User: Fold this.
Amino acid sequence: MTRPRAECGARRVPPALPVALLAVAALVAVGGCGASEGRWAREAMAERAAAAGAARGFNSADVMFLQMMVVHNGQGVELARLARGREVREEVGTLAAAIAVTQEAETAAMAGRLRDWGQPPTAPPDEHAAHGGMPETAAREIASVADAAPADFERTFLNMMIAHQDDAAQLARAEAIAGLHPEIRELAGRIDASRTAQVERMLELLGG
Amino acid sequence: MYVRPKAATGAAALMLGSLLAVIPTTPAQAHGSMSNPPSRAYVCKTEGPDNPKSAACKAAVAAGGTQAFYDWHEVSRLDAGGRHREIIPDGQLCGAGRDKYRGLNLARTDWPATRVSPGPLTITYHATAPHANSNFEFYITKPGWNPAQPLRWSDLEHIRTFNNQNPGTYTNWTINLPQRSGRALIYSIWQRVVGSEEAFYTCSDVDFGGGSNPSPTPTPTVTPTVTPTPTPTVTPTPTPTSQPGGTWAPGTAYAAGVRVTYGGATYQCRQAHTSLTGWEPPNVPALWQRL
Assistant:
């Protein structure tokens, strides 16, 4: 059970926000904070997932995992691309480029799966708390890497990517526990393995 | 979702695109940490992840980056389900065994500590998105624990567990602290009971005073314990990560155009990369083209 009111309080809009962002934030506040609407969306989605899923062998955890990974992966691609044209060792640049293309392909496949299942591409705003969701990399993180001084860039980039992929591995392990669909569980296994291996390599690169 | 004023003003234009993409799913961050006595994560996030004041927080950020402290309320394992001691290795208790949080594991004698005395202590847990029905376990380090050594499970003595709690944003409990002198560490585990296997972990440094504070930290090598990531205990349905035969192998640098065999098929490398487990040729068409 979540407490929409407490969450809304945390989402106060800072006064300095430009108008465009304010509008977006207001939209979110309306969409995300209405307790009844959030609950309605969640229940409706759960029902839809249950009805469709029963026949096709997936459950709401599979859906949630795909929805969260689509967003998380997308941000990972954005993060990985930041290494392009920056001062990084060749191995770091190669790894970042490979992360970008593999996650892009993975994201497309996951989004396609959600479409095939007739599920929304993203979850209702307050949905993932109930499932033990992790946050996706926020714009702040991407900006902090993009803005890093040349001398700090590689280290900042690696640290952020380690944190990001560590979060992805967590999402994958939750799917391994709660998911139903064999292919999605396999996908989660590969995501866990690849992100874990990437983190290991990045830790080596930091140490070296 | 936390729209931080600084981030919003700083790079608003640049961010708008990504923010739009982010918005639908970010809000409800489950979670929390000990705010009194504050956990290491809470201390460093309060100091400010980008410009921490204490030497310990500076070292933690240097060792693992700032993100751990923006995500101070998520020092968690989604796959815990009560198996804390299995999934979190000794030496990594404060960081929940996660590389993202490795800075929290630094064995130092100068983590900012809250002064405490033996006897009743009211403690507070700050949850940003409380979850009903949770168990909270509290531990303290045994007499003689040395903060300059990595924290092990066997260093902990159980104080009290509160079961089936429905935490609010700030939840208080009173625990009874045993006799100690000098520095000690209060460890907590918040295990969700319904709807998730998720558990949260905190390390709060406390000081009973009059302690034989162990000789100042010989500045523990800032090198974070690069322990090989604990093999995930939850082995999901095995994918063909076993050896199905072929010339492909993980940990190999492949140039574009190179050919390998895997599982009886031949693949050509599309983009230079160093291979790794999870990137087997049939699983990553972006890197390998089947011939």
Chain A touches chain B through 95 residues (CB under 8 Å).
